[in-house]
Write a structure and sequence with these properties.
Blueprint: H1 3-11, E1 17-19, H2 25-37, E2 42-50, E3 53-63, H3 66-71, E4 77-87, E5 90-100, H4 106-130, H5 142-159, H6 165-172, H7 176-185
Antiparallel strand pairs: 1-5, 2-3, 3-4, 4-5
Length: about 190
């Protein structure tokens, strides 16, 4: 995310919580050094043992140094997130940095970050992996139409209460009449 984009967010009186990526290596390294050298303002930890995995999360919040506040519009806090544990019987460890114009506690940032990943996992990952939207052929209106149909299918599958998206697709396969009922009569009440 560019400084100009962040400035535009602030100009529109909105808030931001932005993950630091490879395109901001200096900012990421500054946060990593800050994490090593200073005590955080607040810390929150959770452990999630579900879906055959164990994930520990530790969020540390730091006040943004004045030099960074001058460079990034509205910047108040730097957030360092550590995740480690076991996924698919393999250990993992990762660190992610965030910047924000909000002055929240570590527990509050942890909640917002988990909500973001929930959206990512429930929508974007499904669309990217199950429907392979990232590999759609360019040209004309077809990619947009497939995206609309995929969203429609996701909604039907979720309304049916299916455990997984592939399970829902299998249930609806070759059932054009049932899909047509959704189009003409609406979705059934949730289970």
């Amino acid at each position: 995310m560019s400084k100009k984009t962040v400035e535009s967010i602030v100009d529109q009186q909105q808030h931001y919580l932005i993950a630091l990526k490879a395109n901001q290596p200096t900012l990421y390294q500054t946060l990593a050094a800050l994490h090593q050298a200073r005590n955080p303002l607040t810390v929150a930890e959770t452990v999630d043992a579900s879906h055959n995995r164990t994930v520990h999360r530790r969020v540390s919040v730091y006040a943004a140094p004045p030099t960074l506040q001058q460079q990034w519009a509205g910047l108040k806090t730097l957030i360092w997130v550590e995740r480690w544990g076991v996924r698919e019987q393999k250990p993992f460890q990762e660190q992610i940095g965030y910047i924000s114009d909000l002055a929240l506690t570590a527990a509050e940032f942890l909640l917002h970050i988990q909500q973001h990943w929930s959206i990512e996992n429930q929508l974007h990952w499904v669309r990217d992996v199950t429907f392979e939207e990232d590999h759609a052929r360019p040209g004309g209106h077809a990619p947009v139409m497939w995206a609309v149909l995929n969203c429609f299918l996701l909604n039907i599958v979720r309304q049916l209460g299916c455990r997984t998206i592939p399970q829902g697709i299998r249930i609806l396969a070759n059932q054009v009449n049932r899909v047509f009922e959704f189009l003409t009569q609406g979705f059934p009440p949730p289970k």
